[in-house]
Amino acid sequence: MHFHKVALIGVGLLGGSIGLALRQRRLADACLGFVRREASVAECGRLGVVDRAATDLRVVVQDADLIIFCTPIAQMRAMAEQCLPVLKAGALVTDVGSVKGSVVAELEPLFSRAGACFVGSHPMAGAEKTGPAAARANLFEGAVCVVTPSSKSPAAAVQQVEAFWTALGGRSLRLTPDQHDSLVARSSHLPHVVAAELANYVLSPAHPAEQPALCATGFRDTTRIASGSPEMWRDIALGNRKHLARALGVFIEDLQEFQLALERGDTAAVDEFFETAKHRRDQWLGNGHSPE
After folding, report:
1. Does 271 share its domain with 146?
2. Are 123 and 14 in contact, with CB atoms under 8 Å apart?
3. Furthest-apart CA atoms within the chain: distance in Å
């Protein structure tokens, strides 16, 4: 697989990592990145994450045969519309967004009418660190990269997107946009909400001043992802609100059952709660599903 020109719309952790992987694996003649600030142009040049960064979106997109949106999902449609006048006929377009239903619904018809093809995707390889300085060429190695075609997606384009993530070291998994959003609501979006609420509640100034000193490694590890971009997670939560609200409802019910067991002093129920959690997590680790 080789591309003449790849355009990255956004050069943060994911965009920068794609750029580094493309350059290291020599998968493109040129890899350009769109950034918003002149300071980011210099930073991208210093880090070598792309061949060239620019603040002019049209310059980055023009003649690109692969375009990848790496911005917060709420910004994608507006930026896509700006790309249309210079879009190369037959260009392949994808994204790295954590929500697929709304993104596919908005971008697929937009690019189709312009003579290009959009196929949604989501590499499960994020981190709490942001910006191109956090990028690394091996970020996608061994990562599950979900590709979310619709009923209108050309088979050849879907296969190309899957081959692209495989070429970057990922493991492709094909799901419908709704299947994807339902699954990540539980496995990705819910954990972030839980980590954020733990940070909000435990570190609240309403608690005694000694509270932070008693937050050790367990608290640190459990709340790590709460340090992620608030803007990005706001867009994700709202973009997947149907599935996330449903997952939160079940989660809250389970916690309320545990709360009742505690209040009753129900040793068997409390023991089962922790035993079941340990068994399921150990089984998950043993089946090789845990990321490195």
Report:
1. no
2. yes
3. 67
